Each structure stands twice: as C-alpha cells, then as structure tokens.
User: Which sequence fits this backbone?
C-alpha cells in the first residue's frame, strides 16, 4: 500500500510540475493566455494534493524524518534550479514571461527553510521526547531534550555514513541510539560498558571489569514517576548521577562481555528498564549511535495538566 501511494504521489507530482513549468506557457503562446489546462493536469494536481496526507502518515510510520526532509529538499531544490537555469529564460524568450509559476514560488520559498532544518537536525542538534520512565530520575516522561548530533562524529542523513570523526562515546554519557533489532526506533540510555569491557550486574550494583562502581543509597525516592523506590547516587568514570532501585525487586542480573565496536547501555531506573541486559536491545553497535543527550528544553507530560517549568534548561548529567 505504501509503495502504491508513493508511486501515485511521484507520478502526479511530475505531471503537475511539467504542466506548471512548461506546458502552461506553450498553451498561452499557442492559444488564449487564460486557456484552461487539460483535464489530465487538473486531475494530477488534485491527486497530488490528496496523496500528500497519507504519504506524510506513511513517512512518519515507515521512515525517519530525515528521509522526508531530504526528499522535500531535493524536490524543491530541483524545481527551483530547473526554473532558474532553463524555464525562466524560456518564458522570457517568448516575450511574455508572465508571473512565476505557483509551484516554483513554493519551491523557492520552502527550499532554504528545508535545507536549514535538515542541516541543523542532521549535523548539530535534534529534539527528542522521553516517552517512558526507564531513565528516572535523570529524565522524566514528557521531557523534551536536545541531542548533540556531532559529539560522536558527523554522519550523512538517511545513510548514516560517518564523514568526520569528532569524538568518542564516553562512559557515563546519556546516549540516544537506534534499537539494533528495530533501527527505526530510538532509545535513550546511559553508556555503561565500552568495547571489550566485562559488565556484571548483581545485587543492584554494576561491576566493570571486576571493579564495583561506586553506589551510595540516599534513601527513599520522593519524586514523580515511581513509588516505593530507593534513590541511589552512582559514579561512572567521574560522572555522578542518580539511579532508582526498586525495593524487593531486581532487574536482570548477569555477566555481559561487550564485543569490539559495540556498547553496553543501561537505564538509570535500573529495575524498570529494557536495555542491553535484554534480548531485543543487547549490545549497541557504534553505527547505531545517534548522539549525546545534553539538555532538557521543555517538559510536558500529556497525562498532566501542563508543563513543568522547573525542568527547562536543565543539563543532562
């Protein structure tokens, strides 16, 4: 179904573009200036507009936002370029340049905006929303965060090919990554194990290569999002952060050997997090890293009445 909709969108869009850029001026030259377009071109415009909404829905479901922006940028840029290099001159050569076609006007207006959004989102910062409590108390449901896309190197949009090495993931980073078993799904966890590490998790404590990670239990957790949990203070490679430990319940324990080129991720809500300890997540390859979470720019839990202003501009540690 998705392929059929996109084929309809592409075909009707090309027919509409051809009529808007070339054929309408031929009709104006050969007949009356206000000659109506043939039924094929009018139908193509209607079909294109009707196909936009289902195509946008399928893009949201089946592809990532970057792909939609690349396609939109390529289309608007190509229309604008072709008009500047060829069709605008052809219109002028006929002696009746007339007004700029609507399609070209839209392309000229939207292309710079699309390009700017694509560059910022692909190479600088990308916004994400926290949908679950797996990173409590560091991140809450409804937090909107900024992710630094260049912290671990610049990658091309869509293909994710790395262009430039700018930095390496560090233990303790809060990382957004594409789920290995479902690459279209983004997860956010804390990086605990580097390539080659042996990670043990037992009795609610992390051991890295046989050395226990410093963990101090501070008492009962009194914040939102979890009840009956203990608040702990953990230090990973000089990164001090809070964790939640459920009373009388243990998350999955065991020993995990991190392969080369992969990373071991854990949620700060240790007993309520689906992370590298579980099948379906497992070890995260370097190519699946999206970026480093750096700041909260807003909190709005849709289940509550309004935003939590105290979360705005908080750094993520």
Assistant:
């Amino acid at each position: 179904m998705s392929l059929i909709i996109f084929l309809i969108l592409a075909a009707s869009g090309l027919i509409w573009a051809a009529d808007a850029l070339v054929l309408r001026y031929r009709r104006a030259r050969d007949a009356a200036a206000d000659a109506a377009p043939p039924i094929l071109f009018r139908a193509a415009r209607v079909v294109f507009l009707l196909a936009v909404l289902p195509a946008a829905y399928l893009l949201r479901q089946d592809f990532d936002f970057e792909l939609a922006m690349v396609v939109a940028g390529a289309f608007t840029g190509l229309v604008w370029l072709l008009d500047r290099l060829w069709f605008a001159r052809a219109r002028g050569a006929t002696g009746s340049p007339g007004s700029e076609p609507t399609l070209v006007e839209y392309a000229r207006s939207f292309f710079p905006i699309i390009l700017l959004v694509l560059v910022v989102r692909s190479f600088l910062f990308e916004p994400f929303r926290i949908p679950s409590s797996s990173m409590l108390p560091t991140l809450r449901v409804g937090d909107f965060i900024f992710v630094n896309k260049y912290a671990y190197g610049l990658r091309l949009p869509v293909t994710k090919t790395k262009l430039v090495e700018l930095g390496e993931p560090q233990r303790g980073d809060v990382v957004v990554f594409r789920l290995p078993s479902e690459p279209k799904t983004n997860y956010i966890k804390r990086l605990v194990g580097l390539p080659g590490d042996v990670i043990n998790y037992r009795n609610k404590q992390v051991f890295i290569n046989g050395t226990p990670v410093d963990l101090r239990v501070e008492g009962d957790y009194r914040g939102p999002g979890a009840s009956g949990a203990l608040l702990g203070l953990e230090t990973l490679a000089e990164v001090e952060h809070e964790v939640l430990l459920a009373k009388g319940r243990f998350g999955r324990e065991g020993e995990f050997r991190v392969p080369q080129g992969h990373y071991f991720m854990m949620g700060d809500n240790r007993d309520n997090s689906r992370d590298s300890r579980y099948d379906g997540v497992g070890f995260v390859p370097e190519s699946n890293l999206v970026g480093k979470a750096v700041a909260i720019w807003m909190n709005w839990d849709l289940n509550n009445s309004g935003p939590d202003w105290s979360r705005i501009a908080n750094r993520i540690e």
In short: The longest strand covers residues 182-193.
